Known about the structure:
Rossmann fold; 9 helices
Amino acid sequence: MESGILGEIGELTRRGQPFALATVVWRQSPSSSQPGSRAIITAEGEVHGWIGGACAEPVVIREAQRVMADGAARLLLLGTPDQFGAAVPEGMTVIPIACQSEGALEIYIEPVLPVPHLVIVGSSPMTRTLASLAGALGWRTDLVSGPDFATSVADERSMIVVATQGHDDEDVLERAVAARPAYLGLVGSRRRGSTVLGYLADRGVPTDELDRVRVPAGLDLGKTTHTEIAVAILAELVQLRAAGALREPAAVPAARAEPRAQAVDPVCGMTVTADASGRPLRHDGADYYFCSAGCRQAFEKDPDAYLERETRC
């Protein structure tokens, strides 16, 4: 794998950004790619690396975004439908490409999704235990003291647990609310929580944001030790994530955004992006899109032949 791709993987992982890794498993000449060729596809559809030419790339981008949205890897077989017939293994997705070439590609696309991010604010045996437990799950965990906590430490995908034990709870919680995290919990009694939230409401913190603060944080296990409190908090976070109950960011992640408009090339049947990159052509009041200049030229020469074929199908 090229060092540039490794560096990009590290940077995307550091920023907590989802992406997909596409690997060419097999090729049939005259495909321009080679077995082992790899590329990163970001949630926005940017490609870093090489997995094929103009015919393959739009398909890989589209399928990579679906893989990120589904969270499940996919094995693609790219070529013309009549190349494979009944020889396609179960579980493999065949997608027609390359109207000008008889080449084919087998590409494995796997999602690389951000690990959960937990920010624990406070300095106590409980916070250290919680950080250790979250680390054992493979979560990215930041343990910071109250004075060192800043809104920039978290984002809308983060989970924040405030356990400052009465040391500037109000100021820390106000900063935590400003991060608009997916989860925000305050460790303390309901009475203490009511006082803190009332203070923030008087300061003008929006009610809908304060209503999202969980007090006390964690599942209710009754009277427990600090170790059990840490377990209860982690159990609640795991439960909420598994149920899909944590709030999504205000801006829909690109991996889950609506896919770009698509069209079918009337010449070769390949799915293409219905924008300027699809070589648009208006004919009889309708817009048509093409995978290559060759397909567009063929349509221009005799559009009725392809439209009649489309009607018959």
